[in-house]
Every structure is written in structure tokens, then in C-alpha cells.
Design goal:
Helix content: 10-25%
Number of domains: 2
Order of helices and strands: HEEEEEEEEEEEEEEEH
Strand content: 35-45%
Structural class: alpha+beta
Radius of gyration: 24 Å
CATH class of the largest domain: Mainly Beta
Number of strands: 15
Largest sheet: 5 strands, antiparallel
Number of helices: 2
Length: about 220
Amino acid sequence: MRQAFKNTLRLILIAIFIYSCNHSNDLNEDNFSKEKIEEEFDLMSKIIQCDSVYPGKNIRIEYLEHEFENNELTATFAIIKNGKNLIFDSLSTGIYAVKFSDFNGDGIKDVLAHNSSDARSNWTWYLYIASSDLNSFKRIKGFEEIKNPNYLKKYDLIDCLVMSGNNWTSFYAIDNDTIIDFGYIVNMGFNNEKQEYYNYDKDYITSLKRVMKLKANLRN
């Protein structure tokens, strides 16, 4: 009797597991079809319909694997509005990722296209700044050199947190279509020379104040 009960319980648990898996797959498919944001094909290409990011603007992104004579380039990247190319670029990438985030404080999401990533999860991106009317995008030169970029809206600056032997932060700003590197590095971790830990929070605030003064002088 006990063995029969165990067998029955085992069958019930298996049935619940199979149902749960199938139900989970259905939910994922439904969510995907409702969003209709992203379509992948040939494993190394991507088309993104941007209606949820730029409603009513009929903008899409095509990030397509391509062969170039220059082996450092791996893909074409296009931002298309109403069938017209606003951007058509040649890029180097490994995973064809795209994300949307405001990097100039105007409240409009800009486009970031994946460039590279390393073993410590330091990611770099190409940045395309959207115009206010979304009729043009501008690539920012040198942005792809910044690892793990983060926009500080309050200061209209970009900082980063780079994972290395000692983690570190630096500060940048966008000047027209080019990145300015202010040259300040804030270290995190242990200072072998002084045999003590860096005071990251204090050094960050000190460096930020100096960068803000430099930024003000540049604009004056």
C-alpha cells in the first residue's frame, strides 16, 4: 500500500512539473509576442522594432553580421526611420546587444550598441545621441573607450566603474560629438604602495568637484 502511494505521488509530481514547464513556456511566448521588440536570426543578427521606446516614430534598428576586409569590424548597424537610414555604420561587436538610455539629459533615450566585453564583465558600447525630434542620431566619438559607462544626470557627466586588480572610476563629458576624458582616476581597493585601503567615497567626491570646475571652465 505504501509503495502504491509513493508511485501515485510520484506520477502527480511529474504531471505538475510537466504542466509548469509548458505553462512557463507559454507565458514567455506570450510576453515576447506582445512586446514585438526584438527579432533574432542567424544567431548573429538582430532587428529591433522601437515602437515601445519611440512611440509613433516608426523607428527600427538593424544590427547585422557582415564580413569586412578589416577583420576588426564584424557588423553593420542601422537606425532606420520610415524606411530611411538615419545611421548606417560599421562596428565591431561580439553579441549584437542594444540598449536604450538617456546620456545627455534631454529625457529622450539614446541608443547604445554593444562593442566589447571582457572576463571581468567590463562592457563597452557605441553611443548614438537622438535629436529632440528623433529625425537624426549622432555617434559620439570615443565613447566606446569607456568601460561600464553610467550617466550622472545631476552633473551632466559620465562616470564608470571598471573591474580590474583594483577597481577604479573615471569621469567624462560629451562635447558636441566627442568624449572628453578629464583624466581623474578614483581607485578602489588596497593601495600596495601605502599599505592601506583607498578611501573611495571621499576620493570620488573630491575628484567630482574638481571635474565640475574643469567642465565649467571649458564651457566658459
